[in-house]
Every structure is written in C-alpha cells, then in structure tokens.
Amino acid sequence: MARPSSLHDYATHAPSVLGIDVEASILLRQYGADISAASSTPAAARCDRVEALAGDGPCIDAMDELRVRVVTDVAAEQSWHAWRTQAVDEGFATAIAVPGEVGGVQ
After folding, report:
1. pLDDT given for residue 1 in this prediction
2. Which residue among 30, 38, 41, 97 is the one 20 to 30 A from 18 at the CA level?
C-alpha cells in the first residue's frame, strides 16, 4: 500500500486503515486561523468547514486542550451547536478528534 504524501492522501487513506464506515477530516490551525485542510468525503468536509467558521467544535477543543475529544453520541451532545447540527444532518453518530503537532508548532 502506498504511503500517504499529502494531507488529502492522509484523509482519504485513513478510513481504509481505521475501518468500515469511518470518515476522516483534517482541521489545521495556521497563524491563529482554523482551516479545513482535507477530508475523505464531502460530508466530513462540510462538518469541518462549519466547525472552522463557528470556531467551536471537538477538533477546535482538541487543538486548544491538546487532548483527544470523543463524542459517543453526536445527537445527544450539548456542546458545539453548529458542528453538532451539521454532523447530525450528515448522518454522523459518533466522532473523535485527535490533536497533533506539525514541525513542533501547534
């Protein structure tokens, strides 16, 4: 299997590694701005764009807190209204946000 070489490659390759019915998206913070960088599907991309525009969601919190955020029931989630609404509309039931650093910069 080819090794991913770009953010798009990582996002589209992740579901094949993580399992069936998994979608992936990469949200970056660059110079203080949150940017939807790559997604495995249009639905995942739409959720990331809503999160980035709202400045609020599990990925934003994961980056801010440098800890994994697990959403076991998206529909029942009380936080992140705009992201939750979009995620429910897209049919997502659960979510996980995993922070990372690139080049030593958060």
Report:
1. 46
2. 30
